[in-house]
Amino acid sequence: MAEEEHPEVLPEVKEEAAPGEIHPFDPTKKKKKKKVRVAEEEDLEAVDKVTEKVDSLALTSTAGDGIDSSFAGMKKKKKKKPVEGEFEEENGETIAEVNGGEAAEDEDEEEEAEGIVLEARFPWEGTDRDYKYEELLGRVFNILRENNPELAGEKRRTIMRPPQVLREGTKKTVFVNFMDLCKTMHRQPEHVMAFLLAELGTSGSLDGQQRLVVKGRFAPKNFEGILRRYVNEYVMCNGCKSPDTILSKENRLFFLRCEQCGCSRSVAQIKAGFVARVGRRKTTT
Amino acid sequence: MSDLDIQIPGAFDPFAEANAEDSGAGSKDYVHVRVQQRNGRKSLTTVQGLKKEFNYNKILKDFKKEFCCNGTVVQDPELGQVIQLQGDQRKNVSQFLVQAGVVKKDLIKIHGF
């Protein structure tokens, strides 16, 4: 009987662990908490069901022990919840570990973590000495990191996904994630389109699903190269290399203003210039 | 007084910078090398923005000999003369222009995919 019961309990525990492991990818705190709680409730219900089953099955002493231990784990988890919420880092991991049934070890780890954080925050605590610059700096960064972990990263890299390209018939190419890329670059699709078409030396348009249809055969690699050039010319800040820039038009001139360092530079007029060049090109074959 | 007034702007030429910029803008005189797709896997290379002092026909002749392709000089109403070559000759063209000392390397802009 006991051996039959255990496998029923264990899968439940594993299922708990699964959602816990996904959580670290959630950027917001609130979501995390909510989800965890829901999962917890479900799990509790599940465990309750199990216990009911067990009761009906007239348990042996060993089976009862097993369930008890699992219950203990649940209780501890609940108690820890608020504490874990304060520590942003690796919430999910700790939860997963708790779910894994290593409750005792986990407690120790958490206590350690608490101690470390407190020390890092206030190394001057309990003494009368002045704060050192490095300590305060560290404190600021810790707070920053806790409040918004995205910002505090040393270097944020915006990653552009590779262009997805389909062939429409034999003579047209469809650039599927054109809009996505425009959004990641924070540029008007018209602007990007003008550049792309000018560089490719063809004509094209946006279709109903906001994809770019270009006349001619092009490989994804071609688009990538052109987009790279576009980013270098019209997105990247010259000073700090950050892509966090705004393109604005003043007196017929395009200016690129960086949001990070505030520098601005003029940018070769894409539309008129490039359109003119395209118009110039003769398609006399 | 009036002499002085005239002399002062004479000493400081307000257009010096503008002229300098013009020569700077001369650095913007890029030679654009482009590729255009034709039917099938055929393509066309255009060379635009070579200095007007050059004899386009002579350059074209050398191009043709070097790259074993045909080509022509097209007269464009807006942009003057443009050299057209058969096939994707972008690399060849830029290499040739640099080697022959017609254009500096950083003044060549290669467009296209």
Automatic annotation (TrEMBL), chain A:
It comes from the Eukaryota. Residues 103-112 have a biased composition (Acidic residues). It holds the Pfam family eIF-5_eIF-2B. Keywords: Initiation factor, Protein biosynthesis. Residues 7-28 have a biased composition (Basic and acidic residues). GO terms for cellular component: eukaryotic translation initiation factor 2 complex. Residues 1-35, 60-112 are annotated as: Disordered. InterPro entries: IF2/IF5, Transl_init_fac_IF2/IF5_dom, Transl_init_fac_IF2/IF5_N, Transl_init_fac_IF2/IF5_Zn-bd. Residues 155-264 form the Translation initiation factor IF2/IF5 domain. Signal peptide: none annotated. GO terms for biological process: formation of translation preinitiation complex. Eukaryotic translation initiation factor 2 eIF2 is a heterotrimeric complex composed of an alpha, a beta and a gamma subunit. Component of the eIF2 complex that functions in the early steps of protein synthesis by forming a ternary complex with GTP and initiator tRNA. This complex binds to a 40S ribosomal subunit, followed by mRNA binding to form a 43S pre-initiation complex (43S PIC). Junction of the 60S ribosomal subunit to form the 80S initiation complex is preceded by hydrolysis of the GTP bound to eIF2 and release of an eIF2-GDP binary complex. In order for eIF2 to recycle and catalyze another round of initiation, the GDP bound to eIF2 must exchange with GTP by way of a reaction catalyzed by eIF2B. Belongs to the eIF-2-beta/eIF-5 family. This is Eukaryotic translation initiation factor 2 subunit beta.
From TrEMBL, chain B:
The keyword Protein biosynthesis applies. GO terms for molecular function: mRNA binding; RNA binding; translation initiation factor activity. This is SUI1 domain-containing protein. SUPFAM superfamilies: eIF1-like. NCBIfam families: SUI1_MOF2 (TIGR01160). It comes from the Eukaryota. Keywords: Protein biosynthesis, Translation regulation. The lineage of its organism: Eukaryota, Viridiplantae, Streptophyta, Embryophyta, Marchantiophyta. Residues 31-101 form the SUI1 domain. Probably involved in translation. CDD domains: eIF1_SUI1 (cd11566). GO terms for biological process: regulation of translation. It comes from Marchantia polymorpha (Common liverwort). Transmembrane segments: none annotated. Belongs to the SUI1 family. Coiled coil: none annotated.
